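Sample A.
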Amino acid sequence: QVQLVESGGGLVQTGGSLRLSCAASGRTFSLYHMGWFRQAPGKEREFVAAISWSGGSTTYADSVKGRFTISVDNAKNTVYLEMDSLKPEHTAVYYCAATSVFSGWPPRLAATYDYWGQGTQVTVSS
C-alpha cells in the first residue's frame, strides 16, 4: 500500500503562487510514477503533471507547461507541485496520485493510478 497526503492549498489572488506537497509512505517508491490531477466543480478530473520517482522524467498538461513545475525530494519522500502565475481557471481540488512504472510513460490517465490522496483545495480569486 501507498499512502499519500497533500497539503499546501489555499486562497490566492490572480498572479500569485502556491507550492503543493504530497507526502508519501508505504511501498518502494522507485516502482511508481507520481502524478498531480485536479478537479474543478462540475468538471472531470484532469491530468496536470507527472514525474518518475527518480525525478529523471517529467510530463505536463499543455495548459500548464511553463507555469507549473513538478519535482520530487527523495530524502523527504515528498512530491511537489509549484504553481506560478495562478489564474481563476486553476481553481480546483488538486490530488496527488501514484501509478506503477509498468503502466508506462507518460502516465496521463487517471484510471491507471492506483493510489490517491484526499486532495487539497486551491482557490484563485480575481
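Sample B, a different protein:
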Amino acid sequence: QVQVVESGGGLVQAGGSLRLSCAASGRTFSSYDMGWFRQAPGKEREFVATIRSSGRTSYKESVKGRFTVSRDNAKNTVYLQMNSLKPEDTAVYYCAAHLSSTGSGVYEYWGQGTQVTVSS
C-alpha cells in the first residue's frame, strides 16, 4: 500500500518554473512505477510523465525538453521539475503509483492533486 501526497503547485507566469513533489508512504516505494498526470477544467485526465522503478522515464510529447521527472527512493519522493511553463500547462497535477511487478500498467494509488496555474 502506498499513500501519495502532492505539493508544490501554485501560480506562475509563462516561462517560469515550478517543482512539484510527491511524497509517498510505504515500505516498498522503490518497487513502484510513479506517474504524473494532469487534468484541466472540462477535460479528461492525461498522462504527463512516468518514472519506472528501474529509473526509466517517459514523457508526454508536449512536455519533452521542459519537464523532468526524478525520484529519490531514500526519501520516498518523486519530483516533477517544470520549466518554460505555458498557459496550456494549467491543470491539477496528480501523482500516482503502480506496482511495477504486476505488469498491469494500472496506477492504483492516487494523490489528491495540486493546482498549477500559468498566467500569460
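Observation for Sample B: The two ends are 40 Å apart (CA to CA).
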